[in-house]
Amino acid sequence: MKHAKIIDHITTWLKDYALDNGLNGFVxxxxxxxxxxxxSTLCAKTELPLLCLEMPIHQSAQEVTRxxxxxxxxxxxxxxxxxxxxxxxxxFDEMTKALPEAENKENLYLALANTRARLRxxxxxxxxxxxxxxxxxxxxxxxxxxxxxYTKYGDGGVDINPIADLTKxxxxxxxxxxxxxxxxxxxxxxxGLFGDERxxxxxxxxxxxxxxxxxxxxxxxxxxxxxxxxxxxxxxxxKHRHEVNQHKWKPIPVCKIPxxxx
Length: 262
Fold this sequence. Notes:
By secondary structure, this protein is of the alpha/beta class. It is built from 11 helices and 4 strands; from the N terminus they run αβαβαβααβαααααα.
């Protein structure tokens, strides 16, 4: 992997996109995870303005600390990085009070988790509109096009995504090359949407390296009969999530009206 050349390529792509579209810079949410740490560093390297938003909603102290430390490091390295903390906890709590009780608790927890992501998306676009900025996405290839592990119109609601062609393993490689904080590199990946300690692996049932393997097998045309034991289990997890979540990355269905009806 040609780390320096990939970083230069992404940085140039980001800067060209902003300048070609007459926009001032970038805005993104900083979660304390490796994906947002890498994307924010790449955006900062363009030397265009970058606004880093912390948007806690009942967030764990460790996530908040990692996010704040990363932003402080960026501000020391790059002169055009700014930041704001917008605590959305009270907004989220007030919204949940206004909504009716749900009988299915599992569906309720998932709906509320997705609501957190959509509140953050709304906040990002508020500042994007205010300051003429691009909302930069932080989803990697496995999340965005493999298993659809993101919230539709939440963290999936972005203008551009500079790392969507990189696997999680490649994200870690670039982050290490850029000397991202060890605290971020060593933290278990989590979407932080449930207000507890569950990791991405806890939710998915497989690690990112396992999912990358499964993606390669699926794209090579392999089927369930080709595997057994843990490999079969992981392949089934990937295949199921990939197939049920395709609506997230496919264009919105549009009802075409026949000419004779117009």
